[in-house]
Amino acid sequence: MSLEEGRQIVGEQDQQAIVREFTYLLEKSKQLFNGIRDLPQFGQKQWQGYFARTFDVFTRLWRFQQQNRQTLDACFGLKRWQIGEIASKIGQLYYQYYMRTCETGYLQEAFSFYQAVRSRSYYANVLKEDRADLMVKKLRYYARFIVVCLLLPKLDVIVDLIKEMSKYVEEYVKKYESADKDDWKLVLQEVSSFLEANSLVTVVDVNSMPVAVTHRLDTSNQPTATAAGDSPTKRKSLILGEAFIVGNTTEQVKFSELTLDMFRMLQALERKPTQGCIDENSLDKNSANEDDSPVNVRNPHKFLLYKPTLLQLVNFISNGVKELHNQSVVLLYLSASGVEAQKANYEDGPYCHGGVSVKDFKHDDFTKKPPQLKETHCFYPGDLLPFTRRPMMLIVESGASQAFSSMPRLFGQPLICLLAPRNFPSTFQDTSRTGGLLTLFLYSPLIALCYVCGIADIRFSLWEQCQKHVKKTLLHVRNLILHSKEIDHSYIKFMDDMFLSELIVRFVFFMWVMRNHAGFKGPDFQPRCVPLLPEDDVISNSSVQSLMLELTLKLDVRSLFSL
Predict the structure, then answer these.
(1) Residues 251-285: pLDDT tens digits?
(2) Which CATH number characterizes residue 142's domain?
(3) Does residue 210 sit within a domain?
């Protein structure tokens, strides 16, 4: 055998080894990726190790195909759509990890891989493959990319993605006449409706072009909670441990099992990202943990429950609560259609005044029940009582929210209920298209104030001025709460956690607007909180009045407020 023949044999053996290694990594990655859907929702120790192994295999696979692209092209027949599929799965992996850890840094990383698929046109020629399943993969990639862009937000990218996806859906429908063609048209319709519904107020630049602004919590310069005659060192600090975000409002705009209210509440419980997008070549599962936030706080873990059954909801809460530390607070957010009590009920109790609907509730069935029987598919205040053994904040965005106004503190733990008004003026009643007002104020007080005042566009320079003023006002409300001698101690205990305290002060902002806006006069239009906040010390405090009126002057809407 000649030297040249020997080198050729060695070269072929090396190539075969490369193909074998790539095939092994590819199959292993598919196996691990498919296993993610079977991971338990609860128990971080059970799923975190699995994610670590999956990240490791995908890291090796991604780098291996980069380093051996020429050999894989020649000997494996590696196609661009296959590279795109790997990158897309990495993006999905980061998104799934974000959903479990709630750290927004992973969203940024998911975006970088999804964007690489698009910028490098990995799926550009799948139509030529004449395979319907590849077109479906391409369309699913676009749908997932849009979800990530909605959450970041990347509005300019979303517009382009919708145009591109519309084109590809048309191509798919025209060529394959598949049974799922209406489903893909519905996806496009849902995302367009979602974007329109979430654009109640547009921030624009000097050229009247939309500016993307984030509504996540800015953790810079966050003060430390210190009540009058108290200090954080004298009491055990409570932190928000688990948040359950439930969406079951009839016909409310949604996309990918995220209703508009759920989408907003999700972001209200997250801090503003401090990391930029990572490089596509990086796949470090710990990178999002290396955050230099001034307050070094983690986002609370959240369960997103779209139209759960009653048993599913109770199961999620019980399992989530079971994993909490002693000083953790449970937050339950309910955005759901109301279930009123069947008739005037002279009994008093946690099952006597209605509640909110869960999946499978049908109003017609409820009206046929004997008055003494309760609705099976209704979540009553009584269903929540076992969980009040833990400190809890309850937020109810429903016309039947007042059913939760008499929640007893049977176990002596802090309990705060923030409840939406029973009704709204006719102009604001269609929450299926705009979302709930309480949620909107908790999500972005300034957006909400502009909306109820009829401001559709606001200049970016004015937006920044008003945002600073809103932050100043909320900080002042926070100090009033901490130094009030009449306030229930539940509020004081919750003020140590920046997310809980921000929700409380934004609720006060909401109460002030509803009380003083000329279009919301009447008891049915007023929100309620339990325990009650002190009138003189907080809600009607003269300094709060002055700050709020100053804000209305900046927005030129003072005439809408009667004082």
Answers:
(1) 899 998 899 999 999 999 999 876 543 333 434 44
(2) 1.25.40
(3) no
Are 124 and 245 within one domain?
no
Q: Which long-range contacts (CB under 8 A, 24 or more apart) does 461-468 make?
A: 462/554, 462/555, 463/203, 463/213, 465/554, 466/551, 466/554, 466/555
| pTM, 2 dp | 0.90
Torsion of CA 540, 541, 543, 545, to 10 degrees: 0
Containing structural domain, residue 88: 3-204
DSSP state at residue 271: B
Token pair belonging to 104: 């927004």
Compute the C-alpha angle 281/285/288, nearest 5°.
95
DSSP code string of 8-74: HHHHHHHHHHHHHHHHHHHHHHHHHHHHGGGS-SS-HHHHHHHHHHHHHHHHHHHHHHHHTHHHHHH
Instruction: State phi, psi for 548 to the nearest 5 degrees.
Output: -70, -40
Mean pLDDT score, 529-535: 94
Q: Do 83 and 156 belong together in one domain?
A: yes
Those residues with Cβ within 8 angstroms of residue 514's Cβ, 6 or more apart along the chain or in another chain: 421, 520, 525, 526, 527
In a domain, 217, yes or no: no
Distance between CA 493 and CA 413 in Å, rounded? 10
Domains identified in the chain, total number: 2
Q: What residues does 306 pair with on adjacent strands? A: 247
Residue 131 lies in a domain: yes
